[in-house]
Specification:
This protein is of the alpha+beta class. The protein contains 5 helices and 4 strands; from the N terminus they run ααααββαββ. Strand 3 and strand 4 form a beta hairpin. The radius of gyration is 29 Å and the shape is elongated.
Length: 125
């Protein structure tokens, strides 16, 4: 390629990558310039960003959010993420079970099942 062809090619590539935002007039006229250029159309909400949809929390995030309140229940010695009937669940480890303990520990947290496991006291070796 000669220099002129190379310069023309570089110009075309840089212009194609640049794109342009769609104006309100273009949007009102039904122009597809924004779609063709890869930019988003101006929606008339200057300065505002579109709302972000909240993805569901992971089981680790749910356990982290509720760990302190679970550990505050007398008799609870630990918490963990585990599997219950083949599905992810939150396991609460207790020294012994009682009706009071079962009332204070929810059956589910933010859609994840909670299982109580009696482990007895946990002590370091």
């Amino acid at each position: 390629m000669n220099r002129q062809a190379l310069a023309l090619f570089a110009t075309v590539v840089s212009l194609a990558a640049c794109g342009r935002a769609q104006t309100r007039d273009d949007a009102a006229a039904g122009s597809t310039a924004a779609v063709d250029s890869g930019t988003t159309p101006d929606t008339g909400h200057a300065g505002r960003t579109p709302p972000v949809t909240n993805a569901p929390k992971t089981i680790d995030a749910v356990l982290a959010a509720h760990n302190d309140s679970l550990m505050a229940v007398p008799g609870v010695v630990g918490t963990a993420v585990g599997r219950c009937r083949g599905a992810p669940c939150i396991r609460v480890l207790v020294t012994r079970t009682s009706d009071e303990l079962r009332r204070r520990i929810p059956r589910e947290l933010e859609g994840f099942p909670v299982q109580i496991d009696v482990t007895g006291p946990i002590v370091p070796r």
